[in-house]
Amino acid sequence: MGHPFLGPPALPFDISPEDEAKASQHNPQPDLHEEPAKLPQPKKHYRWYYSTPSAAAEMSPPSGLKGFLRGYFHLKSADAYNDPQPILEITAAELDRLPPYHIMPLHLGMRDTVYQAMTPEEVSNMQSRCQRWLPDSDLQVYVDAFTRTGLQGGLNWYRVSTDPHLQKDLDIFTDKKIEVPCLYTVGTKDWLLHQTPNAVERMKKLCTKFHEPVTVEGAGHWVQQEPPEKVVQKVLNFLKAT
To answer: Does residue 16 carry a pLDDT above 90?
Structure first.
């Protein structure tokens, strides 16, 4: 749900390490970290920020955690102004089309980025709509849990996914495919699918029994929370069909 599965890293079985290095020099791959920094107002990708040592402490301060989480949940939901459009390539200009919670100001952490993005209009939208799918009592569960544990456990996923050395254990899965029926569900107001060029086509190659993606109207990134009844029905339909 939401996050596309792009498979394990590929191994260059047909060339030597020396040839691979030469090929990389002549055909450099776009860099999610370097490209946003080239913008007139330099920015950074949220995945790299989440992988930094300071991210967990910056996002879970002793006070203000509830306000930050409320704003963060809102901005990535369908209640906020989100109009996702496919990113065609990994370039600075294309990445700059992403919302600030994906492409952040270079010198801000996520907490300050969220506060900056919460315009008076967004605050009004949040106050009038958020209780429908994330009431204060539910939000408090997250606040209590993260106050107790911090955010580093969840952020470790980003540390691994942005560091090739930490991904070495995945080499054993190179060229493996998922061979059970797979359903990808995403909200129509979620940018996550669109920030990776050709994500659906890549999933189709990785999953031998990949069903056409199911979009959920009126949902943002939190597709399983915002309209849970719609998601449950789509999952039930998938299970019946398989």
So the answer is: no
Distance of CA 240 to CAs 43, 75, 203, 227, 237, Å? 45, 34, 22, 21, 5
Residues 101 and 97: their CA atoms lie apart, in Å, by 11
Query: Is the model's pLDDT at 77 over the cut of 70?
Result: yes
Which residues pair with residue 207 across a beta bridge?
178
**Lookup result for tokens 């590929």:** 10
pLDDT of 216 higher than 90: yes
Structure tokens at 118: 């919460």
**Under 8 Å CB-to-CB from 56, ≥6 apart: which residues?**
150, 151, 152, 155
